[in-house]
Each structure stands twice: as C-alpha cells, then as structure tokens.
Design brief:
With about 80 residues, the chain is mainly α. It is built from 4 helices and no strands.
C-alpha cells in the first residue's frame, strides 16, 4: 500500500523537488507512458503479484471464508429498530 501511495504521489514530489526541470520532464514521461503503456501494465502486474498480501492468500494458509461462523442471529447485542414504535 505504501508503494502505491508513493507512485501516486510521485508527480507531485517531482514538482516539489525539481521545480522547472520536472515541469519539462513530466509531459515527456506522460507521452512515453502513453506510447509504451504495455510496460506500465507489466510493472503493475509484477508488483501486484509479488505483494505480501497476495502471497498470503495464495499460500493456502488463509481461511477460505474468514467471515464464516459469524451471523447476526448469534450476536449478543440486541437489535434495535430504526423506526421507534
């Protein structure tokens, strides 16, 4: 998740850190990514398949239904109606 936030903030960080040079670079980077979008897609796929959360769920250690065993009828809290009677 932190990597995703860093990638989303990268253009703003570049503008803050490099100022005028970033203003010249960012349109060129955008044009390159538009013409080579398959590279960006491959990077996203590689990062998402290597993330720890994906590895956890794929390992088989995680429960198949983590919500199983809980139901509203077993709740100890009484149900209050939304509209008073």
């Amino acid at each position: 998740m932190l990597l995703t936030l860093l990638l989303l903030a990268l253009p703003a960080l570049l503008l803050v850190l490099f100022g005028h040079r970033a203003q010249e670079f960012l349109p060129k980077a955008r044009d390159w990514m538009n013409t080579h979008s398959w590279v960006a897609n491959e990077i996203v796929i590689a990062c998402s398949s290597a993330s720890p959360s994906t590895a956890f769920w794929a390992s088989g250690d995680a429960p198949s239904r983590p919500w199983a065993g809980t139901s509203r009828s077993q709740s100890s809290r009484p149900v209050t109606p939304l509209i008073p009677r």
